[in-house]
Amino acid sequence: MATSVSGEFETALRRLEEIVAKLEGGEVALDESVALFKEGKGLAQKCERLLKNAQESIEAAARGEGEAASPAPSSDGPLFGSGSGDGRVR
């Protein structure tokens, strides 16, 4: 089941791919190119932040830290929601 973070990442990545294709096509005016570049840069940073948070969460789980050491949610909302488990695999 996809989490909201997964959906957020996929949406941002899909839009970033659209922007890249449009810019590579060469049919965009300079003003629009600049606007698309700025949007793409923001999306790339967002994707990078989401991936970093996911990696930190995985590393914490691998160390056995579970929910207690979950990274702080980004300013975009909770990272993985409020799980009720203790992070251990049974």
What would you say about this model in short?
The chain has a domain at 4-63: Helix Hairpins (Orthogonal Bundle), CATH 1.10.287. The chain contains 2 helices and no strands.
CATH class assignment of the domain at 4-63: Mainly Alpha
In whole angstroms, how far apart are the ends? 19 Å
Reported for the largest beta sheet, the result is: none
Shape: elongated
- What is the radius of gyration computed over CA atoms, rounded to a whole number of angstroms? 17 Å
- Element order: H for helix, E for strand: HH
Kindly estimate the percentage of residues that lie in beta strands according to DSSP: under 5%
Report the helical percentage: 55-70%
Helix tally equals: 2
> How many strand elements?
0
Descriptive report:
The chain has about 90 residues and is mainly alpha-helical. The protein has a domain of about 60 residues: Helix Hairpins (Orthogonal Bundle). The protein has two helices and no strands. α1 packs antiparallel against α2. The longest helix is centred in the middle third of the chain and has 33 residues. It is elongated, with a radius of gyration of 17 Å. The two termini are about 20 Å apart.
Secondary structure topology:
Blueprint: H1 4-25, H2 30-62
For this entry, give a set of tags:
90 residues; mainly alpha; Helix Hairpins; elongated; disordered C terminus
